[in-house]
């Protein structure tokens, strides 16, 4: 079964891998929207256009979104994705530019044209919160939000906060309260699933695989300095893969997640597990099945 999807991204190396994998899987990507996060939104947009051009998919429309989080000041993330966000790999410039429509409106328009659409979110949730705030009936057209973000027991920015939700916690809280079914991949299953260089090489084959290895080199050089091993994490690809092949999920919880929003708090941007339900949170994955998902499409 294939799906119609809108992908919202702060493209990033693992975002790029996710976009490439969605294309290879045969997802009907009806549009890609961009948001500031790993790098500034102009750079994110350029990265997405270049990736699509490399993949021969200039037919996929790109819509630029939010420049900064709703309330938080823009933070500069660690330069683990390189200066340009895609491991400083210089892909050919795309002959195409982004569309004129801003991302939040594009999300609404595309969802109305494709009812039942899935929103795959790979970055801070600024565009998504804006879209649902501007157009409350958007809820009627979106069947599911699949999202990488949050931290149940382990964060990557702080002990309790994960980057995407930390960057724009108000937007995350807004989206978590929508009442739309959410499949969430927080940092927990990601950090428990390091992928080593040899595994990356065995998984991502061909010319596209070569590009992925080239982009991840920056990360592996960094990780080697800090940890003494060459490996990466694949947060955004895990959101795509667990949605498309739920047998990859070893354990999950059905609960609610909220964000700590207090500006004076050291915990601002941390995720808090509530008592409700409706948010399916992936806690553990089967690494072999996770890698097989990509081996089968590369
Ligand atoms: C998230 O932050 C970004 O660096 C990655 O692309 C991923 O979306 C992980 O915390
Ligand atoms: Ca991302």
UniProtKB/TrEMBL annotation:
Q: Describe the location of the Inosine/uridine-preferring nucleoside hydrolase domain by residue ranges.
A: 5-291
Q: Which InterPro entries match?
A: Inosine/uridine_hydrolase_dom (IPR001910), IUN_hydrolase (IPR052775), Ribo_hydro-like (IPR036452)
Q: Name one GO molecular function term.
A: hydrolase activity, hydrolyzing N-glycosyl compounds
The protein in question is named: Inosine/uridine-preferring nucleoside hydrolase domain-containing protein
């Amino acid at each position: 079964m294939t799906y119609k999807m809108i992908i919202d991204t702060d493209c990033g190396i693992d975002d790029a891998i996710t976009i490439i994998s969605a294309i290879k899987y045969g997802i009907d990507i009806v549009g890609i929207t961009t948001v500031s996060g790993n790098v500034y939104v102009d750079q994110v947009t350029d990265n997405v256009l270049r990736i699509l051009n490399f993949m021969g998919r200039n037919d996929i429309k790109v819509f630029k979104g939010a420049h900064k989080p709703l309330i938080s000041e823009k933070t500069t993330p660690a330069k683990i994705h390189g200066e340009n966000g895609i491991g400083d790999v210089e892909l050919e410039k795309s002959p195409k530019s982004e569309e004129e429509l801003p991302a939040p409106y594009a999300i609404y328009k595309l969802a109305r044209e494709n009812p039942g659409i899935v929103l795959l979110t790979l970055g801070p949730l600024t565009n998504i919160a804006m879209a649902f705030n501007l157009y409350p009936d958007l809820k009627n057209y979106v069947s599911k939000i699949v999202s990488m973000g949050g931290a149940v027991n382990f964060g990557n920015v702080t002990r309790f906060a994960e980057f995407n939700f930390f960057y724009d916690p108000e937007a995350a809280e807004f989206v978590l309260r929508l009442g739309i079914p959410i499949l969430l991949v927080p940092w927990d299953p990601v950090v428990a699933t390091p992928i080593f260089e040899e595994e990356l090489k065995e998984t991502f084959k061909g010319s596209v695989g070569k590009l992925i290895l080239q982009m991840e080199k920056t990360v592996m050089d960094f990780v080697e300095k800090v940890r003494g091993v060459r490996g990466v994490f694949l947060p955004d690809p895990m959101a795509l893969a667990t949605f498309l092949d739920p047998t990859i999920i070893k354990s999950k919880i059905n609960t609610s997640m909220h964000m700590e929003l207090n500006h004076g708090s050291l915990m601002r941007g941390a995720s808090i597990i509530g008592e409700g339900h409706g948010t399916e949170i992936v806690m553990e994955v089967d690494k072999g099945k996770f890698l097989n998902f990509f081996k089968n499409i590369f």
